[in-house]
TrEMBL record:
<feature type="repeat" description="TPR">
    <location>
        <begin position="279"/>
        <end position="312"/>
    </location>
</feature>
<dbReference type="InterPro" id="IPR011990">
    <property type="entry name" value="TPR-like_helical_dom_sf"/>
</dbReference>
<dbReference type="InterPro" id="IPR019734">
    <property type="entry name" value="TPR_rpt"/>
</dbReference>
<dbReference type="Pfam" id="PF13428">
    <property type="entry name" value="TPR_14"/>
</dbReference>
<dbReference type="Pfam" id="PF13432">
    <property type="entry name" value="TPR_16"/>
</dbReference>
<dbReference type="GO" id="GO:0008476">
    <property type="term" value="F:protein-tyrosine sulfotransferase activity"/>
</dbReference>
<dbReference type="InterPro" id="IPR026634">
    <property type="entry name" value="TPST-like"/>
</dbReference>
<keyword id="KW-0808">Transferase</keyword>
<dbReference type="InterPro" id="IPR027417">
    <property type="entry name" value="P-loop_NTPase"/>
</dbReference>
<dbReference type="Pfam" id="PF13469">
    <property type="entry name" value="Sulfotransfer_3"/>
</dbReference>
<keyword id="KW-0802">TPR repeat</keyword>
<protein>
    <submittedName>
        <fullName>Sulfotransferase</fullName>
    </submittedName>
</protein>
Length: 675
């Protein structure tokens, strides 16, 4: 007897359909229809059929079924979630919004519902509601166990495990803004800036109201000097319906980097009008006012900062760093009390401690107490030296490689190439060498625009050096020799394009005053053959001691040890001497002491080298109103004076390490040592 095959039960049919839903939705639909023939209107079968139809691209049919289900099962989250997705895919925005709003009310901790709702609201032109929905999605994601596990791994330093968890999650779930942002943070922590930015950009594109992700993206863009993009995102963040003082702060920081000091000052003033008890904002305002040349107002701002927080070392140093301000006995007593309060062993306050030592060094210098002054400068430098990386031997080796590479014969073999633009004037040398004075003189000419210390050439140079460090080339010379004329044209054009954002006028020439560019005079010749290079040089003891007692906001890691800075100066002189021998006349040298002694003659020589006519305004440079961001910002707003030429003399008993490091360079100044 042949046994009859039994038809599968509704439960079996539905289970089989569920298993087929992703890989064969048409078979899942057939399974659902079998059940519906036996039990018309059976909700689980209708739900399976609707999901199958959606995956088959039949959105309108799916929406019709899901809409009917939602009317009878309005508090079933799965139905609302599916209806929201189906309606969104079918461009039925009002129905999608209604379903997703009902879903998020029922289950506010489901982040995906909020993010999809935000996209639909944005599509409907309801931008503020969409922004708030994104923020709700971010808040909901803080309860997600998978994300929490990955975040804990990041916190514990296990970046590889966190990276793996998030990569798997994103491969499985696709568009997940919080996961993308965290994945971007992992790349950033690993030093992988390109994927970091790409991931966070994707998070922000998916959820434009994700304010924390946009804030992070702005900071990444600032780190990579992508300033116009950073400004665009900062403007968007400023429009958030959930206002935050931090949004104004980050916008102001971008504006400062772009040179828009006046607008930044306005933002700081608005923040202080709302809450004047913000020492950090007072300090930031002081920085901007100093740059704008509003010295009295800058002093008031810095004083407001330290009156609210006497241990705020950077604000004290900002006062001392005005150079034209003298800190008196009351200031000294307050700073010494602040140091006692901080306790020099407290690692988390090291920045305040070394800033206070630098400030006290300046205060005692003004009081003519060289011993006390040197002791504080020495403590500040010693502490700062523990916090930075500088390998004098490695740096000297890199300089030596450049000396051996850029010979006249080598340059001749490369032939023509590079970007022919004559726009840039590079003012190079060491910090505190008179470069800001040279910049101010040139910027007073109607054909020359002063910008600031631009990082673009250093970034190009570091990128090329990394190709050697990573083993792509055997040595520096091989890497440079590999650059074709097209490569050099592209690099020169890249520099011109990347610096365009800093130019605010239509003047034909502009200044890049990054002093460290002396390391790349050969590269400048190759990629920008028509650029001018001005070497600002000052007596080695004056220059190095002035640099050693100066705390720099960033970079210049060689300045915190007398031996390091002496070696750096010697490397600089030797490389520039070698370059002078290989490319005579390419670099114009301005000796600071000669500029002080006979300003007009030196200015005429300088302008003749640049190829522009003499203009009397260059002799009255101190009348030129422009933003100046360096430590000499106030000094260049006054006529040249001779008082600072031998400021190192009272400190000579302690300068033996510097003299030893300078070696023959000291005795031969202003010339380079023979040979």
């Amino acid at each position: 007897m042949i046994q009859q095959l039994r038809a599968p039960s509704p439960q079996q049919a539905l289970a089989e359909g569920e298993a087929l839903l992703v890989i064969a939705p048409h078979k899942a639909l057939s399974a659902a229809e079998v059940v519906l023939r036996q039990a018309p209107g059976f909700p689980p079968a209708e739900f399976l059929a609707a999901r199958a139809l959606r995956r088959m691209g039949k959105g309108k049919q799916a929406v019709a079924k899901l809409d009917a289900l939602a009317r009878g099962n309005g508090r079933v989250p799965a139905v609302l979630w599916e209806l929201g997705q189906a309606a969104a895919e079918a461009n039925d925005t009002p129905r999608a919004i209604a379903a997703l709003q009902a879903l998020t009310q029922l289950q506010p901790r489901i982040a995906g519902g909020w993010f999809l709702l935000a996209r639909q609201l944005r599509k409907a032109g309801r931008a503020d509601e969409a922004w708030r929905a994104d923020l709700s999605g971010v808040h909901a994601s803080s309860c997600d166990t998978g994300l929490l596990k990955a975040a804990l791994a990041v916190q514990d330093g296990d970046l590889e495990s966190a990276d793996r968890m998030l990569a798997e999650r994103l491969a499985r779930e696709g568009d997940d803004p919080p996961a993308l942002r965290l994945h971007g943070e992992i790349a950033w922590r690993k030093g992988e800036m390109t994927p970091a930015i790409a991931r966070v950009e994707q998070a922000v594109a998916s959820a434009p109201g994700f304010d924390l992700a946009r804030d992070f993206l702005i900071r990444l863009l600032l780190q990579t000097n992508r300033l116009p993009e950073a400004l665009d995102h900062a403007e968007v963040l400023q429009a958030s319906p959930i206002p935050s003082p931090g949004h104004k702060l980050i916008l102001a920081s971008v504006l400062v980097r772009l040179g828009h000091q006046e607008r930044a000052a306005g933002l700081y003033r608005k923040l202080l009008a709302a809450d004047p008890d913000q020492p950090q904002v007072w300090q930031n305002l002081g920085h901007v006012l100093k740059t704008l040349g509003q010295q009295a107002e800058a002093v008031e701002a810095y004083r407001a900062a330290v009156s609210r927080q006497p241990t705020m070392g950077e604000a004290w140093w900002s006062l001392a760093n005005l150079k034209t301000v003298k800190l008196g006995p009351d200031d000294i007593a307050t700073m010494e009390a602040a140091l006692a309060t901080l306790g020099e062993a407290q690692d988390e306050r090291k920045e305040d401690v070394f800033h206070l030592h630098f400030s006290l060094g300046k205060a005692f210098e003004d009081a003519k107490d060289a011993a006390a002054s040197f002791a504080h400068y020495d403590k500040g430098n010693a502490l700062r030296r523990t916090m930075i990386l500088h390998d004098a031997d490695t740096f000297s080796a890199e300089v030596q490689a450049a000396k051996q590479t850029f010979t006249a014969a080598f340059i001749a073999t490369l032939g023509e190439g590079g970007c022919p633009a004559p726009d840039p004037i590079f003012v190079v040398g060491l910090p505190r060498s008179g470069s800001t004075l040279v910049e101010q003189i040139l910027s007073s000419h109607p054909m020359v625009e002063g910008t600031m210390e631009l990082p673009e050439l250093m970034m190009i140079g570091a990128r090329l050096q990394s190709r050697v460090d990573e083993g792509e080339f055997a040595d520096f010379a091989t890497m440079i020799a590999s650059l074709t004329p097209a490569d050099r044209l592209r690099l020169g054009e890249e520099y011109i394009e990347r610096t365009r954002v800093h130019r605010q006028t239509d003047r034909p020439l502009f200044i890049d005053k990054m002093p460290n560019n002396w390391q790349h005079v050969g590269l400048i010749r190759l990629i920008l053959p028509n650029a001018k290079v001005v070497d600002a040089r000052r007596h080695p003891l004056s220059c190095c001691f002035s640099g050693w007692k100066q705390h720099f906001a960033r970079g210049q890691t060689f300045t915190y040890d007398l031996t390091d800075i002496g070696r750096y100066y010697a490397d600089y002189v030797n490389l520039m001497a070698k370059w002078d021998a290989q490319a005579p006349g390419h670099v114009h040298r301005v000796i600071y002491e000669r500029m002080v002694a006979d300003t007009e003659a030196e200015v005429r020589r300088l302008l003749s080298y640049i190829g522009i006519p003499f203009d009397p305004a260059c002799l009255e440079f101190y009348k030129t109103e422009r933003a100046v961001r360096t430590a000499s910002s106030e000094q260049v707003r006054q006529p040249i004076f001779k008082d600072g030429l031998e400021a190192w003399k009272p400190y000579e008993p302690w300068l033996a390490p510097l003299k030893a490091a300078l070696g023959p360079v000291l005795e031969s100044y202003p010339d380079a040592p023979a040979g």
